[in-house]
From TrEMBL:
SUPFAM superfamilies: FAD/NAD(P)-binding domain. InterPro entries: FAD/NAD-bd_sf, FAD/NAD-binding_dom, Ferredoxin-NADP_redctase_2, Thioredox_Rdtase. It catalyses: [thioredoxin]-dithiol + NADP(+) = [thioredoxin]-disulfide + NADPH + H(+). Homodimer. Keywords: FAD, Flavoprotein, Oxidoreductase, Redox-active center. This is Thioredoxin reductase. It comes from Mongoliibacter ruber. Its EC number is 1.8.1.9. GO terms for biological process: removal of superoxide radicals. One of its GO terms (cellular component) is cytoplasm. One of its GO terms (molecular function) is thioredoxin-disulfide reductase (NADPH) activity. Its cofactor is FAD. Belongs to the class-II pyridine nucleotide-disulfide oxidoreductase family. Residues 9-297 form the FAD/NAD(P)-binding domain.
Length: 312
């Protein structure tokens, strides 16, 4: 463990839209924030191609390029951006203590958690190969690219039903692949799907392979009861089997819901720990968009600034 302890007013954990937006606001407020990027500098948007729904880019922009813009804007006002992974936290006393890469200790008056979430995937080779080339974990983000076309979606929860209905509004046909002979989703969400003439629910159905070389052209599925295989022509393949918030290091330090999403006080980014704020997908399992993450990042910086002002 390195002996030198760095002290900061604002420490931001994570470099997605939430973290960088918090950094822009905190640095412009003269708080000299320190931001650790984590293992994925730029966050989830660095693994996508076109982003067409972020305001201010009328022609759309590539995800990695957009996140470079976010970083540059945060640095322009004095944010220190460092590559590093927060590996441990201690919020039991003030200032709050954070360990980075199991080595460096930082003491911070306020902490902004913006560690995001990761989509769960099926784990098959073709899914990884065609990721971003027709395979997506976000219907709201990518559904538009497949308007008027046939797509498939995997999942059986409320989110899967919601995304299937969303896709049915813009696509020609939606095959919903459900592993069991029933869904986890609430009855009301199931009814919405089952009544929609554009959605065909395929029960007891699992994905063997997503077909296509450079883009999705189809999917080979099998019925796990009968063993029967079937190839379906589609151009988009959506995975909606859940997300995992990147919050395990805060497990014993902060109040979360049963799925690991950090709980914030309604209308704010305050957590149950004074001086610790949470924003972006780490505390939002509902909207999960870059613009909402950025919005709550802004809120977190303003909440931190007001907290610091009240301490003085
Ligand atoms: C393939 C794909 C396409 C998408 N397309 C769109 C789109 O077109 N439009 C849209 O609005 N949204 C899109 N989204 C959703 C959008 O990317 C997310 O809603 C948004 O990135 C969430 O921002 P965030 O800042 O909360 O977290 P993230 O972007 O998830 O960033 C989390 C950050 O935290 C860091 N981190 C995690 N753990 C630690 C740690 N222990 N220490 C330090 N750092 C840590 C990571 O390295 C990362 O930098 C897409 C998502 C995916 C996966």
């Amino acid at each position: 463990m390195s002996s030198e302890i760095e002290k900061v007013k604002v420490l931001i954990i994570g470099s997605g839209p939430a973290g960088y937006t918090a950094a822009i606001y905190a640095s412009r407020a003269g708080l000299n924030p320190l931001l650790f990027t984590g293992a994925q500098p730029g966050g989830q948007l660095t693994i996508t191609t076109d982003v067409e729904n972020y305001p201010g880019y009328p022609e759309g922009i590539m995800g990695p390029e957009m996140m470079e813009d976010f970083r540059k804007q945060a640095e322009r006002f004095g944010t220190q951006v460092k590559y590093g992974m927060v590996t441990k936290v201690d919020f039991s006393s003030k200032p709050h203590k954070v360990i980075v890469d199991d080595q460096k200790e930082i003491h911070a008056d306020t902490i902004i958690i913006s560690t995001g979430a990761s989509a769960k995937w099926l784990g098959i080779e073709s899914e990884e190969r065609l990721n971003g080339k027709g395979v997506s974990a976000c219907a709201v983000c990518d559904g538009f690219f497949f308007r008027g076309q046939d797509v498939a979606i995997v999942g059986a929860g409320d989110t899967a039903c919601e995304e299937a209905s969303y896709l049915a509004n813009i696509c020609n046909k939606v095959y919903m692949l459900v592993r069991k002979d029933e869904m986890r989703a609430s009855q009301i969400m199931q009814n919405r799907v089952l009544k929609n003439p554009k959605i065909e629910v395929m029960w007891n159905t699992e994905t063997e392979e997503i077909l296509g070389q450079d883009e999705v052209e189809g999917v080979r599925v099998f019925n796990n009861k009968s063993g029967e295989k079937r190839e379906i022509k589609i151009s988009g393949f959506f995975v909606a089997i859940g997300h995992e918030p990147n919050t395990s290091i805060f497990k014993d330090s902060i109040t979360m819901d049963e799925n690991g999403y950090i709980l914030t006080k309604p209308g704010s980014t305050k957590t149950n720990i004074e001086g610790v704020f949470a924003c972006g997908d780490a505390q939002d399992h509902v909207y999960r968009q870059a613009v909402t993450a950025a919005g709550t990042g802004c809120m977190a910086a303003l909440d931190a600034e007001r907290y610091l002002a009240a301490q003085e």
